[in-house]
TrEMBL record:
Organism expressing this protein natively: Larkinella arboricola
Record bears the keyword Repeat: no
The organism's place on the tree of life at top rank: Bacteria
Keywords: Glycosyltransferase, Transferase
Domain Phosphoribosyltransferase: start-end pairs: 6-144
InterPro entries: PRTase-like (IPR029057), PRTase_dom (IPR000836), PyrR_bifunctional (IPR050137)
GO molecular function (one): glycosyltransferase activity
Record has Transmembrane as a keyword: no
SUPFAM superfamilies, per database record: PRTase-like
The name this protein goes by in its record: Pyrimidine operon attenuation protein/uracil phosphoribosyltransferase
Length: 169
């Protein structure tokens, strides 16, 4: 049985979505001197890095990237680790970044380290929102909203320039 793969977004379209999200982040944080982009390990972290690169081109604010380390395959997370100290994001605007928002489980876990720290704001950014939420997590910055069946799989590739895009299996 072969799985049919459909390209939903090309590399150029993904880059346009990233640029648009970066402009939205800047519009909502223009009074800030710094924003923290906390990317979920994997393609979410790559997306956070790309957003930071665009923000550095278009805005005077500093964009600091952190990695949220968790295992997306686990139903429960024993602990979520950040590659930076709480002092880095205390009192700042934090945007948790991931590639796809599906059920909301991964992002619910990813928000945990920021809940006990005083922040200016806490938002979520994703390239694709599938809208199959089981957890009360919504994205504030969305590149592309996609209606799919529960059995379909969305794959976002950002780390491979030749294959960069969004694919549906």
């Amino acid at each position: 049985m072969t799985s049919e793969i459909t390209q939903i977004l090309t590399r150029v379209q993904v880059e346009q979505k990233i640029r648009r999200i970066a402009f939205e982040i800047y519009e909502n944080n223009f009074e800030q001197s710094e924003v923290i982009l906390a990317g979920v390990s994997g393609e979410g972290y790559v997306l956070a890095q790309r957003l930071a690169d665009v923000l550095q081109q278009i805005a005077p604010l500093k964009a600091t990237v952190m990695k949220i380390m968790l295992d997306k395959t686990l139903r429960q997370q024993p602990s979520i680790h950040l590659d930076g100290a709480e002092t880095v994001f205390t009192g700042k605007s934090v945007i948790v970044v991931d590639d796809v928002l599906n059920s909301g489980r991964t992002l619910a876990f990813a928000l945990q380290p920021f809940l006990n720290v005083p922040l200016t704001s806490l938002k979520v950014a994703v390239i694709v929102d599938r809208d199959h939420k089981r957890y009360p997590v919504a994205a504030d910055y969305i590149g592309y909203k996609l209606s799919t069946t529960l059995t379909e799989h969305v794959e976002v590739i950002l780390s491979d320039q030749e294959r960069m895009g969004v694919y549906l299996r």
